[in-house]
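Exam review. A common question shows you a sequence with its structure tokens and asks you to describe the fold in words. Practice with the pair below. Do the first one on your own.
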Amino acid sequence: MVLHIFRGATSTFSGSATIEEPLMGSSSILTTCRWDVGANDALQITAQSIMKGGRSWVPSFGKANDEMDFDQDKASRVLSKCYPIFLDDELLVLRGVLRSAIFIFIRDMQ
């Protein structure tokens, strides 16, 4: 999984993000998101659109028909429940709901 975070133009507490989730044998799923700093400094990631190949769709949140496809946006759902526990110029470490689940993202300097 690759996470790209972009700081907002007017605020350092919100911005946009993309999550790239590689799939075996096919193209990856690219999720366009918005991120905000939530209560207790939680990282709130909200998926806005999902793209795979030439198709694009809006993620279902289950509110309209009480159904949700749990396979279509796994990465965005997992990351939306994480808390940042370390951040510097080159490293972002997130802790999941399960305290033993840790996600480490390294800044790509390209």
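Now try the second one, then compare your answer with the model answer below.
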Amino acid sequence: ARYPIHWHLAGNASGSYVRSSSMHNNFQRCTTVHGTANVHVAENVCHETMGHAFYLEDGIETGNVFERNLVINAREGGAVCSDFEHGGGSTTSHQLGPSGFWITNP
């Protein structure tokens, strides 16, 4: 699996949640919400993960609640295009972050 927890284009997912979980030694992300609304992500620990840990992917995700989650040591690794800042040439890109929380639509 690409991500331990991934809501993928689920639309309105009211009632869906991940709570009180430990996600560790991940090769990419901890929890990804993509094209999905109204999920609850609470009281989780993400430890030793590559890339952004808690990730809202496209900026169209609404009504989702992230509360009391902890990220310890998010490292560079497993990347997608939104993780990069592109410079003047094709070889001047560098990875941003990683961050504990990547929120594309505040």
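Model answer, second protein: The first strand starts at residue 5 and ends at 12. The CA atoms of residues 16 and 39 lie 5 Å apart. Full marks require stating both points clearly.
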